[in-house]
Design brief:
This protein has 4 helices and 2 strands, in the order H-H-H-E-E-H. Strand 1 (about 55) and strand 2 form a beta hairpin. The radius of gyration is 22 Å and the shape is elongated. It is mainly α and about 100 residues long. It has one domain (about 5-100).
Length: about 100
């Protein structure tokens, strides 16, 4: 009779692999969205400076509006990250408890 290492069975379980792959996917997607937004500022400044100088409201132009928008968008991305990871971490905790047990 062979006794298997509970950590090895956890790491090899399909549930663990699925959840960790989902966490990786969420991280990469949100990272790419964030980087695209932040890289848009210097790209627009270089390639479309006249577009960014257009007025939105009063003395606020498109460039300033886009920068202010990024604060709100960054908050939304952080909230999405927190909510998704909270859900995935709970699922992962259940899988760990199943394979290793609570101590």
């Amino acid at each position: 009779m062979s006794i298997q290492d509970p950590h090895a069975t956890l790491l090899n379980s399909d549930e663990f692999k699925r959840i960790t792959a989902k966490k990786h996917r969420v991280s990469v997607i949100l990272f790419c969205i964030t980087m695209a937004m932040f890289l848009a500022i210097p790209l627009l400044s270089h390639f479309a400076p006249e577009f960014q100088k257009r007025s939105l409201v009063g003395s606020m132009n498109i460039g300033l509006g886009f920068i202010l928008f990024q604060y709100a968008a960054g908050s939304v991305i952080a909230i999405i990250y927190t909510l998704k990871f909270r859900k995935l971490d709970r699922q992962l905790e259940a899988v760990v408890r199943h394979h290793i047990g609570s101590k």
